[in-house]
Amino acid sequence: MWKVLLTAGAIASLWLATPAAADDKPDLARFGALPNIEDVQISPDGSKLAVITTDGEQRFLTIRKTEGGGLAGIAVGDKKLRSVTWAGENNVILVSSVASEGAAFKGPAREYFLASNFDVRENVQKPLLSGVKDTLNIVVGPPQVRMIKGDPIVFLEGVHMMRGVGTDTLFRLNLRTNALKMLDNGVRYGTDGWLVDAAGEPVAQSMYDDQTGRWSLLMKVGSTWKTIDKADAPMGSYGLAGFGRDGKSVLVRRGYGEDALREYRPDGQHETLPDDMVFDGLLHDPQTLKLVGGYRLERGEITYDFFAPTLQSAWWSAVKPFRDARVTLHSASQGWRRLVLRVDSPAEGPSFALVDLNTRRGWVLGPAYKGIDATTVSPVQTISYKAADGLTITGYLTLPRGREARNLPLIVLPHGGPEGRATPGYDWWSQALASRGYAVLQPNFRGSQGFGEDFIKAGFGEWGRKMQTDLSDGVRELARQGIVDPKRVCIMGASYGGYAALAGATLDRGTYRCAVSVAGPSDLNVVRRTVLRPGRICMRGDGVGEQVSTAAPIDPVWEGPTARDGSNRGALQCAREGTGPSNPGRMLAIDENDPRRTTSMRYWLRFMGDERKQADLKAISPVQLADKADIPILLIHGEDDTIVPFEQSQAMADALKKAGKPVALVPLKGEDHWLSRGTTRLQMLTEAVAFVEKYNPPS
User: Fold this and answer.
1) Fold classified for 380-523+621-695
2) Is the Cβ–Cβ distance between 638 and 675 less than 8 Å?
3) CB 641 within 8 A of CB 669
4) What is the C-alpha to C-alpha distance for residues 582 and 586, in angstroms, rounded to an integer?
5) pLDDT for 246-300, tens place per residue?
6) Nearest 5°: CA angle at 410, between 508 and 498?
7) Annotated domain spans of the chain
8) 135-153 per-position pLDDT tens digit
9) Which of 399, 401, 364, 342 minimizes the C-alpha distance to 20?
10) What is the CA radius of gyration of the chain?
């Protein structure tokens, strides 16, 4: 029998603020604040935990023993921490990001990633890739940690300037000796990803030509790099998905289909993995790097499959005590003997737990959110309905606690991507809206991932078309069942979901009473130009930074109105141009096995349609249809957004004001595309809730 020392509910009660009275709505800060525990990573031998906590805005790294007791820690501050990786037992690699032009270059703002090492014994944090000649101080890929002859070695992908062009270059850093070496053997223009084997040798490169849309896979055979495969990939690079089943072959997700995972060997042979090895996410052994299994999300449930029966049995034993909770694997020690789990209870919200497979004991580490428990979590159910053309659409419906599911006010909350998906489990945004008395519909419209290649392809060319009516078809079905009042429906969302909110006000009119767009693109022609002609960076000859003139624009990211500070962000010229670092989506993808992690947003164009449809993007661009808006619109946008620039919302606000339509624009100071900061995330939620309560009262 497992000995669960504390239930999730018991430990959560120790962390809660004073509970609200039964007839009061819980404070929005419970939902909008950053998670109390953002991340927990277990050390290789399972003896220590690296825990990232927040106080609502500031982040903290704490190193503690797995059984309890602090060892070291630092205040990370308000940095946007993106990943935490153990390198041996005494070093933790932190990757943070900042939206800027960078210290050694100038150009369009992007999300740049910085790596640092926290030495547990010295309790000191040091930057990595700093002060290297002709090399930017940023990283463009996740750190790869290897133990070589007892030393922790971290391989970092940096940007080294070769004749004025930034190349994705691999660096080798020994954390014991601090010896840093650039591995220039095999570096090529267009490299966008590396794999390093367990012995510390680079063995695979992914290359992509932005001009031709041609992808290549190179593998090292002896001392020579050989091209193993090539393919036309107009929507972006296929990248690398890790090592194969023997720890030496290389995996690549070819295209958008879930059945397109190929395993390549250095001799040029490859095979497509069988159906029972087709996963939404891959699991690799942290020591041997072998593919050991994966996980799937089917019909709202996540399942883990391990190739080895012993691992599969151990997993089933680990999750059994949590009964009806949705359990995901967060990190594992070597040998898979200690596991950190995220336990998403439908009644009490998410928490982190640790299980020891040797002692068959488990204990809860703490709740992910303060103030979230059985008194605040609203029930979520999986639903399905037919779109107008007969395609089955699935999604999730969150219902307000304590209210009969009849004639409820509704908020439609489409996901971003658009090739993302709504998932089961705790969602702070929908839970916040449900706490105010709204039903919340999160549809997985056509084009969403996780439902097969045909479902994704059904979205190609349907941006603003059937992808949009899939949302209102869901409203009509819920109204037919009597669950919602069709006269009390609003729409809100972020990124593509923000676009969908604007399209609900200008294209699919008559369904909604109000719309809230968070970081939504409004002018698709500008998006298309940005994708096809991304802005370049300007480098000094010595790579230290340069004063640039503003005589003439080159490849402007924004070709519409000027920026909020009055400058023309497109007006940039320099004596020496270089390519920009790779797309931040590679580092920020929720699932690192997602094939889009190494691409730009070129794949957006596939959803916008072929060249014929792309020639008429004005017809589905809300900024061009402002005079048709028939409902109040709230625009919320981070000023540091480098994916959908703030000017997209500014242009929409200007167009709506010119047309005499009701609109409000809320800038989020210092915020990015992902709502990474606690204060501005809560500001977004507070403004959005106040807006829908005004124009679509919940009672």
Assistant:
1) Rossmann fold (3.40.50)
2) yes
3) no
4) 8
5) 999 999 987 654 447 899 998 888 998 887 787 888 999 989 999 999 998 876 6
6) 50
7) 1-15+287-377, 380-523+621-695
8) 888 888 899 999 999 999 9
9) 401
10) 25
